[in-house]
Amino acid sequence: MISSERMAMVDRNAAALGVSTKQLMESSGNAVARAVRDRVDAGDRVHLICGRGNNGGDAMVAARFLDEFEVETLLLGRPGTIRTDIARENWDALVASDLPTRSVADSRGFDLGEIAPDLVVDAMLGTGVTGALREPEATVTRRLNAADVPVLSVDVPSGVDADTGEATGVAVDADAVVTFHDDKPGLTGLDADVTVADIGIPDAAETFVGPGDLLALGRDADSHKGDNGEVLVVGGGPYTGAPALAARAALRAGADLVRVACPEPVAREIQGYGPDLIVRAFDGDHLSPRHVDDLLDRAADQDTVVFGPGLGSDDATLDAVVEFLAGYDGRAVVDADALQVVPEVDTDAELICTPHQGELRKMGGETARDWRERADLVTEFAGDMGHTLLVKGRYDVISDGTDTRVGRTGNPGMTVGGTGDVLAGMTGALAAQIQSPLRAAALAAWANGRAGDSAADEFGDGLAASDLPDRIPQALRDEGV
Ligand SMILES: NC(=O)C1=CN([C@@H]2O[C@H](COP(=O)(O)OP(=O)(O)OC[C@H]3O[C@@H](n4cnc5c(N)ncnc54)[C@H](O)[C@@H]3O)[C@@H](O)[C@H]2O)[C@H](O)CC1
Ligand SMILES: [K+]
């Protein structure tokens, strides 16, 4: 089962792996042809009704595979209004091959003819539908539903929302649907005969985080201050640089406001990093239980809290972590020394834990050399814990116990101290902007590795964690393939 949002990410990841959307359309069209052959006999009449998007494109490909039938390909709209290159190229190929095509500017030109065809292929719209069907699709749909002709829908019956199965307006009442790659939630309730066709998308497009996962980071143009998240970093103690690295990474990953709660000596140092960070010191030189109530107040109106960079593992500090998590019910990234107490804490918080493999074992998790084995172990442990895990390694494994992704970016130079703080800060910022903790953590792992790869291009194994934050914006851009 796959959502249309996730399908778009997987499409993009497939393209980045070298399997272009045009190749996927060719496979989709071939799958449509196979579904046609399952329903009608050689010599029968088949009408393909095409929209102006890639759903239409699928049927334009299918038309090349259906020589044994009497096929007509009908485009709803003028060829110049076909919206994608790959659909238009397939339309042009039909015209150039002198295969029977017709295009109608509106529904007046649409009729099923005196003798209705033996099968109509509905390729007007698929996952690209928005709102109630407009003209000419609406009238064509009504005529189709009124006619007594078998209908095979491509990917989704036109007008039906692939995720919900609902239709805002009219929708094609399909007898059969051939959908691609994986079943769609909106198809389960339909009384149509649904076939799922494999269209050659490599599993890697789903398993490995790629540029498609950036689609989770939709940035609406009119977002204003506070929309892209407020992050509180709680860190510092024996280590002063860690909270600053995490905070700068959060800023560079698009958080609007980043506050740092840290011991006084650390605050003085971070103040030196300039005006971008709002620093709130707490007394003493390490986090203790007496600080927890005030921290819970401050955390209450933040989108995410990044807990742990540089806190150290003093007993009082770990007690404070337990008390904070027991009293916190928001979203938090937990990193470094704070991680070891997570399994014992009963919390309503939505946690993203970012251990390396040593810290995972300290939490009671198991790890393995082979990343596939590690992925299974991490998935199981995340499920047991009820939190999202991002386990860092040559291959990062990210899981919420149900879905699991693997990050393959990064390089050995990143074992230098501090890259984990950058990752924690970026995870906090993305988790403040993306609803799914798993998607936020997967994107953070992938972008952190890309920032590290960019730093390694320049500094080799001499890269420092402080080289990473400024490379995050580029790492979060899809430079296309
Ligand atoms: N990996 C895959 O699953 C692949 C799927 N493919 C097919 O691509 C479509 C999605 O194509 P897309 O171009 O994004 O959108 P559609 O063709 O579904 O529809 C867009 C088209 O429809 C118009 N439109 C949108 N809403 C309405 C409306 N309410 N009324 C009228 N017209 C509407 C819009 O203007 C566009 O013209 C997917 O379903 C698969 O069939 C690819 O083949 C590749 C791989
Ligand atoms: K369709």
Automatic annotation (TrEMBL):
InterPro entries (UniProt xref): CARKD (IPR000631), Nnr (IPR030677), Ribokinase-like (IPR029056), YjeF_N_dom (IPR004443), YjeF_N_dom_sf (IPR036652)
SUPFAM superfamilies: Ribokinase-like, YjeF N-terminal domain-like
Enzyme Commission number(s): 4.2.1.136, 5.1.99.6
Annotated YjeF N-terminal domain residues: 7-207
Binding-site positions, AMP: 420
Cofactor binding comment, as recorded: Binds 1 potassium ion per subunit.
Reactions catalysed: (6S)-NADHX + ADP = AMP + phosphate + NADH + H(+); (6R)-NADPHX = (6S)-NADPHX; (6S)-NADPHX + ADP = AMP + phosphate + NADPH + H(+); (6R)-NADHX = (6S)-NADHX
Keywords assigned by UniProt, alphabetized: ATP-binding, Isomerase, Lyase, Metal-binding, Multifunctional enzyme, NAD, NADP, Nucleotide-binding, Potassium
Coiled coil among keywords: no
The UniProt record lists the keyword Nucleotide-binding: yes
Residues noted as binding K(+) in the record, renumbered to the chain: 55, 122, 158
Alphabetized GO MF terms: ADP-dependent NAD(P)H-hydrate dehydratase activity; ATP binding; metal ion binding; NAD(P)HX epimerase activity
Cofactor: K(+); Mg(2+)
Sequence ranges assigned to domain YjeF C-terminal in this UniProt record: 207-479
Entry binding sites for (6S)-NADPHX: 54-58, 126-132, 155, 242, 310, 356, 421
Biological processes annotated in GO: metabolite repair; nicotinamide nucleotide metabolic process
Self-association state and partner proteins as the record states: Homotetramer.
Family statement drawn from the similarity comment of this UniProt entry: In the C-terminal section; belongs to the NnrD/CARKD family. Belongs to the NnrE/AIBP family.
NCBIfam families recorded: yjeF_cterm, yjeF_nterm
Function: Bifunctional enzyme that catalyzes the epimerization of the S- and R-forms of NAD(P)HX and the dehydration of the S-form of NAD(P)HX at the expense of ADP, which is converted to AMP. This allows the repair of both epimers of NAD(P)HX, a damaged form of NAD(P)H that is a result of enzymatic or heat-dependent hydration. Catalyzes the dehydration of the S-form of NAD(P)HX at the expense of ADP, which is converted to AMP. Together with NAD(P)HX epimerase, which catalyzes the epimerization of the S- and R-forms, the enzyme allows the repair of both epimers of NAD(P)HX, a damaged form of NAD(P)H that is a result of enzymatic or heat-dependent hydration.
Name of the protein in its database record: Bifunctional NAD(P)H-hydrate repair enzyme
Gene field: nnrD
